[in-house]
Design goal:
Chain A: GO terms for molecular function: phospholipid transporter activity. The complex is a heterodimer of chains A (about 240) and B (about 260). Chain A is mainly alpha-helical and about 240 residues long. Chain A is built from 11 helices and no strands. In chain A, helix 3 packs across helix 8 (about 140-165). In chain B, about 40% of the residues lie in helices and about 25% in strands. In chain B, helix 3 (about 95-105) runs parallel beside helix 5, helix 5 runs parallel beside helix 6 and helix 6 (about 170-185) runs parallel beside helix 7. Classes of the chains: A mainly alpha (about 240), B alpha/beta (about 260).
Chain lengths: ~240, ~260
């Protein structure tokens, strides 16, 4: 029953987020600040993880190809498919649920605990529009971060492949080009946009409606991470079935 | 004027406010007092519309709060200034940005006009040199004064203060009390203060509403509270020996 209540409340929150918009001059500043806090500050970790995971995928694939009949360019092909289809959009989003999600929940939750949200509401400001909407808009730039992740993942694979001596650069590049389907990139970006919305709104929901003190802010951050991850995994399954099935 | 008629509020089966009726007038410091758990914070939050209530009427200069649309409620709230118990300053903004915040949200003032207005109110609350400090760098008393500056910067018609003296030393508490009384008189606002500080009651209580177990037990002023024979009020207000002696002296002087 509590899950149903929370689901209903979540959709009401989203509807409320679009009502009574904040002045554009103020909103613009908030969006730019959130782009900095949520996207720019995440680029480092996305780049680092993508590069090395791309490398690991390549090494694992190369080590598992023992049959001489299997062409070596398959290493590049497998890396491309893994990075573009799943690693960059889905698994990076789960990592971001930890980084960005807990930042959003704890910052909004702290504002709740210290009555800053009450202060906004007493002033007649739509606190949901003021706090959640700019984060949602800022995270619409999230696919750009994922595009960088895709590029660096494939680059990391190439570095591991060439410097580790698993296959030649030519074979790796040939694998990257083999049977390339542009729709896979589109599919990946569609997923990323949906995950970006989830990353902005579910942690905001748990921060905004939390009750209690500092301890509860920590608990809300954990709950937000769990539910954001669960929803991302479920939506990944549904979207993959719809778009590629 | 804020008029409250027969206000009821419950949380589950627990009835917190039981038919409170009173009024708060313009240009006066109105105090809501009572023991912890008497319902004063709930009453204040009902007045502000932060808590919905089951029964009763709250009207702001004739506008019945429960009959207003969400947008009308937000418009009304733009005329309200609030000083929270913990100050509730936005910790990502400097002190001057906190003070300018209501102006940015609700006026079309230019940046220089907003800065001038913020300068004026910060001087008014005796904080002329704190502009660029972050709230975390300010003392409790300074934070309260910034909260008052933010509450009055947009010339509100109604000012609410929740325990404005909590956590402050007695000297700073008196400064804050006097400041609230002065600006109430100066700007002719309806000021409602939630307090259990007896010094505030004696200093600035132009109207006092005493709540007990969610009921309005007594109402009067700082002058009449000395003479009341309501046992619940005298037990609460004169619980310390010092205040008992002060009352005794007052009654002897006025006999």
């Amino acid at each position: 029953m509590r899950y149903l209540h929370n689901t209903g409340r979540y959709f009401l929150m989203i509807a409320e987020m679009f009502r009574k918009p904040t002045k554009w001059s103020v909103m613009r500043t908030l969006i730019l600040k959130d782009i900095d806090d949520l996207i720019i500050s995440s680029l480092g970790i996305i780049a680092f993880i993508s590069f090395f995971v791309g490398g690991v995928i390549t090494i694992q694939t190369a080590l598992n190809i023992e049959n001489p009949l299997i062409p070596r360019y398959l290493v590049g092909f497998a890396t491309r498919q893994s990075v573009i289809l799943e690693f960059a959009p889905t698994f990076t989003s789960i990592i971001m649920a930890g980084k960005v999600g807990s930042f959003i929940t704890s910052s909004i939750g702290t504002m709740r605990v210290t009555e800053q949200i009450d202060a906004l509401e007493v002033m007649g400001i739509n606190a949901l529009n003021y706090l959640v909407f700019p984060k949602t808009i800022a995270l619409m730039l999230y696919p750009f971060a994922i595009a960088i992740g895709m590029f660096l993942g494939i680059l990391g694979g190439m570095a591991a492949c060439v410097f580790g001596g698993y296959t030649s650069l030519e074979d790796y590049v040939l694998g990257l080009q083999t049977d390339f389907d542009g729709f896979h990139v589109t599919y990946s970006f569609i997923k990323t946009y949906v995950f970006a919305f989830v990353l902005a709104t579910i942690p905001s929901f748990y921060g905004f409606y939390m009750k209690g003190g500092a301890l509860e802010v920590g608990k809300a951050s954990t709950t937000a991470f769990v539910w954001t991850s669960v929803v991302i995994i479920l939506l990944n399954y549904i979207l993959t079935g719809m778009l590629l099935g | 004027m804020i008029l409250v008629e027969n206000l009821y509020k419950s949380f589950g089966n627990a009835e917190v406010l039981k038919g409170i009726s009173t009024s708060f007038e313009k240009g006066k410091t109105n105090l809501i007092i009572g023991q912890s758990g008497s319902g004063k914070t709930v009453f204040l939050k009902c007045l502000l519309g932060l808590f919905p209530y089951e029964k009763g009427i709250i009207s702001y200069d004739g506008k019945i709060f429960s009959k207003l649309s969400e947008d009308q409620k937000r418009d009304l709230r733009a005329e309200i200034g609030m000083v929270f118990q913990g100050s509730a300053l936005f910790d990502s903004m400097t002190i001057v940005e906190n003070v300018m915040f209501p102006l940015k949200m609700f006026t079309k003032m230019s940046k220089s006009e907003m800065e001038d207005r913020a300068d004026f109110v910060l001087k008014r609350v005796n904080l002329p040199d704190a502009h660029n400090k972050m709230p975390s760098e300010a003392s409790g008393g300074m934070q309260k004064r910034v909260a008052i500056a933010r509450a009055i910067v947009n010339n509100p018609k109604y000012l609410f203060c929740d325990e404005p003296n909590s956590g402050l030393d007695p000297k700073t508490a008196i400064v804050i009390d006097n400041l609230i009384q002065e600006i109430t008189d100066e700007y002719q606002m309806v000021t409602v203060i939630n307090s259990h500080d007896m010094n505030s009651v004696m200093e600035i209580g132009e109207k006092i509403v005493f709540l007990r177990h969610g009921i309005k037990e007594w109402q009067g002023s700082k002058d009449t509270i000395f003479k009341t024979d309501n046992k619940a009020v005298t037990d609460f207000v004169y619980s310390s020996n010092l205040f008992k002696k002060v009352r005794q002296m007052y009654l002897e002087e006025n006999e």
